[in-house]
Amino acid sequence: VQLQASGGGLVQAGGSLRLSCVASARTFSTYTMGWFRQPPGKERELVAAISKSGGSTSYGDSVKGRFTISRDDTKNTASLQMNSLKSEDTAVYYCAASSIVALPTSSRLYRYWGQGTLVTVSS
After folding, report:
1. Secondary structure of the chain in the HEC alphabet?
2. For residue range 45-62, what is the model confidence (pLDDT) as tens digits?
Protein backbone atom coordinates (compact mmCIF):
# COMPACT_ATOMS: atom_id res chain seq x y z
CA VAL A 1 0.00 0.00 0.00
CA GLN A 2 1.37 3.39 -0.96
CA LEU A 3 0.16 6.43 0.95
CA GLN A 4 0.42 10.02 -0.22
CA ALA A 5 -0.17 12.74 2.37
CA SER A 6 -0.85 16.35 1.46
CA GLY A 7 -2.38 19.54 2.78
CA GLY A 8 0.31 20.81 5.11
CA GLY A 9 1.46 24.39 5.17
CA LEU A 10 1.89 27.54 7.22
CA VAL A 11 -1.08 28.80 9.20
CA GLN A 12 -1.60 31.29 11.99
CA ALA A 13 -2.60 30.17 15.45
CA GLY A 14 -6.35 29.71 15.63
CA GLY A 15 -6.58 28.79 11.97
CA SER A 16 -7.50 25.54 10.25
CA LEU A 17 -5.96 23.05 7.85
CA ARG A 18 -7.20 19.87 6.28
CA LEU A 19 -4.78 17.03 5.60
CA SER A 20 -5.53 14.28 3.11
CA CYS A 21 -4.02 10.86 2.63
CA VAL A 22 -4.67 8.98 -0.59
CA ALA A 23 -3.96 5.25 -0.72
CA SER A 24 -3.03 3.26 -3.78
CA ALA A 25 -4.62 0.00 -2.71
CA ARG A 26 -8.06 -1.17 -3.70
CA THR A 27 -8.09 -2.82 -0.27
CA PHE A 28 -8.05 0.57 1.48
CA SER A 29 -11.32 -0.22 3.24
CA THR A 30 -9.69 -3.15 5.04
CA TYR A 31 -7.19 -0.95 6.88
CA THR A 32 -7.37 1.01 10.07
CA MET A 33 -6.00 4.46 9.27
CA GLY A 34 -4.04 6.72 11.55
CA TRP A 35 -2.45 10.14 11.60
CA PHE A 36 0.75 10.64 13.57
CA ARG A 37 2.93 13.67 14.04
CA GLN A 38 6.51 14.30 14.99
CA PRO A 39 7.38 17.73 16.36
CA PRO A 40 10.97 18.93 15.98
CA GLY A 41 13.23 17.05 18.37
CA LYS A 42 10.43 14.91 19.74
CA GLU A 43 9.10 11.40 19.27
CA ARG A 44 6.32 10.50 16.88
CA GLU A 45 2.89 10.47 18.53
CA LEU A 46 -0.60 9.41 17.59
CA VAL A 47 -2.92 12.21 16.55
CA ALA A 48 -5.97 10.22 15.51
CA ALA A 49 -7.08 6.84 14.24
CA ILE A 50 -10.19 5.59 12.51
CA SER A 51 -11.49 2.05 12.18
CA LYS A 52 -12.07 0.19 8.93
CA SER A 53 -15.77 0.92 9.08
CA GLY A 54 -15.28 4.51 10.11
CA GLY A 55 -17.52 3.90 13.08
CA SER A 56 -14.81 4.19 15.72
CA THR A 57 -12.21 6.88 16.23
CA SER A 58 -9.48 7.64 18.72
CA TYR A 59 -7.65 10.91 19.41
CA GLY A 60 -4.57 12.04 21.23
CA ASP A 61 -5.43 14.03 24.35
CA SER A 62 -3.87 17.22 23.03
CA VAL A 63 -6.10 17.35 19.93
CA LYS A 64 -9.45 16.16 21.27
CA GLY A 65 -12.22 18.56 20.39
CA ARG A 66 -10.08 20.33 17.78
CA PHE A 67 -9.18 17.67 15.22
CA THR A 68 -11.48 15.29 13.35
CA ILE A 69 -10.42 12.21 11.42
CA SER A 70 -12.58 10.81 8.63
CA ARG A 71 -12.36 8.45 5.70
CA ASP A 72 -13.95 8.07 2.30
CA ASP A 73 -13.47 4.56 1.01
CA THR A 74 -14.89 5.47 -2.41
CA LYS A 75 -11.90 7.76 -2.87
CA ASN A 76 -9.34 5.70 -0.90
CA THR A 77 -8.81 8.77 1.25
CA ALA A 78 -8.36 9.48 4.93
CA SER A 79 -8.55 13.07 6.10
CA LEU A 80 -7.66 15.07 9.19
CA GLN A 81 -9.52 18.32 9.78
CA MET A 82 -7.51 20.49 12.15
CA ASN A 83 -9.18 23.48 13.77
CA SER A 84 -8.09 25.97 16.43
CA LEU A 85 -4.48 25.25 15.64
CA LYS A 86 -1.83 26.06 18.20
CA SER A 87 1.91 26.61 17.88
CA GLU A 88 2.46 23.28 19.61
CA ASP A 89 0.71 21.54 16.71
CA THR A 90 3.73 22.35 14.55
CA ALA A 91 5.10 19.04 13.30
CA VAL A 92 5.52 16.74 10.36
CA TYR A 93 2.27 14.82 10.01
CA TYR A 94 2.21 11.25 8.71
CA CYS A 95 -0.64 9.04 7.66
CA ALA A 96 -0.37 5.33 8.24
CA ALA A 97 -2.29 2.13 7.63
CA SER A 98 -2.66 -0.85 9.91
CA SER A 99 -4.22 -4.29 9.53
CA ILE A 100 -5.05 -4.32 13.23
CA VAL A 101 -8.73 -3.79 13.95
CA ALA A 102 -8.64 -2.32 17.43
CA LEU A 103 -7.48 1.28 16.72
CA PRO A 104 -3.80 0.79 17.53
CA THR A 105 -2.12 3.77 19.15
CA SER A 106 1.48 2.62 18.75
CA SER A 107 3.29 3.56 15.57
CA ARG A 108 4.92 0.13 15.61
CA LEU A 109 1.56 -1.43 14.78
CA TYR A 110 1.19 0.49 11.53
CA ARG A 111 2.82 -1.21 8.57
CA TYR A 112 2.42 1.36 5.82
CA TRP A 113 3.43 5.01 5.99
CA GLY A 114 3.09 8.10 3.88
CA GLN A 115 5.95 10.50 3.32
CA GLY A 116 4.82 13.19 5.77
CA THR A 117 3.56 16.71 5.32
CA LEU A 118 4.81 19.69 7.34
CA VAL A 119 2.39 21.78 9.35
CA THR A 120 3.73 25.02 10.79
CA VAL A 121 1.58 27.10 13.11
CA SER A 122 2.79 30.62 13.76
CA SER A 123 1.86 32.34 17.01
Report:
1. CCEEEECCEEEECCCCEEEEEEECCCCHHHCEEEEEEECCCCCCEEEEEECCCCCCEEECCCCCCCEEEEEECCCCEEEEEECCCCHHHCEEEEEEEECCCCCCCCHHHCCEECCCEEEEEEC
2. 999 999 999 999 999 999
